[in-house]
Amino acid sequence: xxxxxxxxxxxLAPPAGDEHGxxxxxxxxxxxxxxxxxxxxxxxxxxxFVANMTGxxxxxxxxxxxxxxxxxxxxxxxxxxxxxxxxxxxRLVARLGGRRGRILAATTACEAALVAASSAIGLGVGNPDxxxxxxxxxxxxAITGGLQTATARRLAVPDLITTVLTRTIAxxxxxxxxxxxxxxxxxxxxxSVAAMFVGALGGAYLVLHVSRSLGLLVALMLLxxxxxxxxxxxxxxxxxxxxx
Length: 244
Fold this sequence. Notes:
The chain is globular and about 50 Å long. It is built from ten helices and no strands. About 75% of the residues lie in helices and about 0% in strands. Helix 2 packs parallel to helix 8, helix 2 (about 25-45) runs antiparallel to helix 9 (about 215-235) and helix 5 runs antiparallel to helix 9. The two termini are about 30 Å apart. It has one domain (about 1-230).
């Protein structure tokens, strides 16, 4: 129990000399952003995920065989836009080299711009769940999801992929004492699951009970400080910034 709590605390407040520096809490914040975006996209844009591509691939298969409530275009568009975002992340990484802080700052700055545009569309139109506004939102937010996922993969902080929990949950179970493991990184993995849950819970509440597009503004409010923190904390070229 103590090791789990210690692992969770070190994820939230990394000790001096941690090989990943402040990346862990910053990526946890992006995991909350994922929950907010997917809550909005799924509940407002017609059962479409903008970060969780596994769901879109499955839903696309359902649509192809004529399952009711599913259509091909939104899921195909989301997947294609996600790939575009991942490609953009690759170009950013190639340009910025191995500076992990710079990579994260540049990526989240792009994300913030895309989410800001999405917020403007969502708040500016009467029905963001229909017509051209719906497809514009799918494109913008899925590009955001692709950028974030690919960048998190490049940063290579264990169990903090920010958009996918399947491997995280499986890893926690596999490494648990119940399975004969050492309970390694259970705290970090638990925080990752909790961050996604909190983002989705908050996003769903805002969509259903406050304003359908307010969750995007909350996501923007989280992306901006992550961008600023990643930029400022990496200016002195710390060791974690250069780690592979």
